[in-house]
Amino acid sequence: MRNKIPVFISAFVGIFMILKYFSTYPAIKRVADELEQWGVITLSFSIVLGVLNLIKINLKAVVERKKDWGYKLLLLVSMFTMMIAGGVKWYLEEVRGRQVNQGLPLAVHDSLFDFMFDHVYFPLSATIFALLAFYVASAAFRAFRAKNLHATLLLIAAVIVMIGRVPVGGAIWKGFPWLQEWIMTWPNTAGQRAIQIGAAIGMIATGLRVILGIEKPYLKG
Amino acid sequence: MTGTYDPFVETLGVWLVCFFTLAVFSFLYRDNPIYKAVEHIYVGVAAGYYFYQAFRGTIYPNFVLHVMRGTRAIVQGQAEGWTVHDGWLAQWRWGAAVLGILLLSRLVPRLSWLSRWPMALVVGAFAGLNLTGFAKANFIDQIAGTMLPLAAGGSAQALPFWPGATAAAPSIFNHFVLVVGVVTVLTYFFFSTPRTGMLGKMGTVGIWFVMMTFGATYGSIVLARISLLIGRATTLLDANLPKYGYPAYWCALLVLLAIVVWRLKFCKDEQQP
């Protein structure tokens, strides 16, 4: 039962998803839509699972005063603050909002949740990604060496794209913006398209293997 | 920013933005307590944000509101366009919640095998959806998009260099580049037979295209990251106004002092990296 039922569920749901695409029969579409919603809702619970796991691991470290427990306490405090702020926003918009707005949700833009999103989550997220600029530049310094024809092609394409997209490129030579657009539109599209076709073939094969029960990733762990 | 706040809250927000931005940049010196603290705050806030999004964006509308509407239809005989029959059909959605709760059994090792059922549902659903979705968008549509005219005729231009031509304008030469690129790159990734003779030559041309693609992608990524970096610098400059009390200067000083104190007091015996 532990192994057979999951294989049956996976095959049943997968077949309905394929039938939904090809069939015009309303009952099949309705069942497939419902199963798709089940999948979306179940997937959302995986975030709940992740959050519970985060609480379990970090709370244990804080209670047992393990190494760096102070940082883990900060993590828990910020997480609970954001969750409570989210709960308050939901209440203001959905519960109280519907009472005062003829049954429709009300948009609130100055809640603690919005404040934390604007002034904590967004700047931290953007700066962490911006930090990668230094590492990408350092990696480029090591990777862009014209050792052979292949590395030279990589270097030339990257340099033209980088120079052609900034105003100074056009100031150096008017052809740079045109050339970078040409590389992005034609040779780059050709490579990306072939990679996409290859990935799609892999995806179709993996999907079929999962639906037919040959591949069973959900039985692991 | 999405919110509009009163002046005090706005000033507090600007100070927070400056502090968090500079605290993250302190990592460029080396891993330090200020960076570690804001890194943990980021993980916590992100977890809280995604938890809210999961509830508000999916569980609440697709389960709670759906079932409540169905229940109202059953109790009142008809509600918001739904009949009693629709109301009973909506109650099937409880199955999704039960499977969602079964997913949480992973936290209890003795019962963790129960989480295979919801996992199987998710994997099966997305395998089926992706199978048809990828087959259409990434396979058939891409092949169809590569079926381009390769001979001059009508108004088609042979070369892409006529006066006023944009780089993206279709021409026989550009079509030729695209078709040859797709076919040769696919040949390069075809591992079922040894790449000798004609196949080998096509594969060689294919790898030239792959290298140009990777170079162009890498160049775009470098520019995107630098653009983000400029964005953060602009944010600091825009926030560093007298009406806010020059928060960028003060926060920079605070971060610097914290690093100096930490370096002198707690890392005396450590060697420089």
In a few lines, what is going on in this structure?
The complex is a heterodimer of chains A (221) and B (273). With 221 residues, chain A is mainly alpha-helical.
Span between termini of chain A: 17 Å
Q: What structural class should be given to the helix and strand makeup of chain A?
A: mainly alpha
Number of strands of chain A: 0
Helix/strand/pairing category of chain B: mainly alpha
Strand content of chain B: under 5%
Number of helices of chain A: 8
Enumerate the strands of the largest sheet of chain B in spatial order, edge to edge or round the barrel: 1-2
- What is the approximate shape of chain A? extended
Strand residues, percent of chain A: under 5%
Task: Walk me through what this model shows.
The complex is a heterodimer of chains A (221) and B (273). Helix content of chain A is 81%, strand content 0%. Chain A is mostly helical. Among the domains of chain A are: 1-57, no CATH class; 67-134. Chain B has 273 residues and is an all-alpha fold. In chain B, strand 1 and strand 2 (82-83) form a beta hairpin. Chain B has helices at residues 7-25, 33-76, 84-90, 94-103, 116-146, 172-188, 197-239, 247-266; strands at 78-79, 82-83. Among the domains of chain B are: 1-27 and 248-273, no CATH class; 31-114. Chain B contains eight helices and two strands, in the order ααββαααααα. In chain B, helix 6 crosses helix 7. Classes of the chains: A mainly alpha (221), B mainly alpha (273). At the A-B interface, helix 1, helix 2, helix 3, helix 4 and helix 5 of A face helix 1, helix 2, helix 4, helix 5 and helix 6 of B.
